[in-house]
């Protein structure tokens, strides 16, 4: 995992947080929820390959 992925995740977190607060204060709670959900899905799509690699490594350790 490279450091740029961590910075991307942090940037998405900050952006979603600010956008969520603005939308909540504007009375648009549904859009704030959807923004949070979209940010979560985006980050999950970024880290799924790393999770798959982790499981493959663990499987390789226990394979006889």
UniProtKB/TrEMBL annotation:
Membrane as a keyword of this entry, yes or no, is yes
What InterPro entries does the record point to? Answer: Spore_III_AC (IPR009570), Spore_III_AC/AD (IPR025664)
- Keyword annotations of the record: Membrane, Transmembrane, Transmembrane helix
Q: Which residues cross the membrane?
A: 6-23, 32-52
Does the keyword Membrane feature in the UniProt annotation? yes
The identity of this protein, by name, is Stage III sporulation protein AC
Name its species: Acetivibrio ethanolgignens
């Amino acid at each position: 995992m490279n450091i740029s992925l961590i910075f991307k995740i942090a940037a998405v977190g900050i952006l979603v947080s600010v956008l969520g607060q603005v939308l909540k204060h504007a009375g648009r709670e549904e859009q704030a929820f959807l923004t949070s959900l979209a940010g979560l899905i985006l980050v999950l799509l970024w880290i799924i390959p790393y999770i798959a690699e982790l499981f493959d490594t663990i499987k390789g350790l226990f394979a006889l």
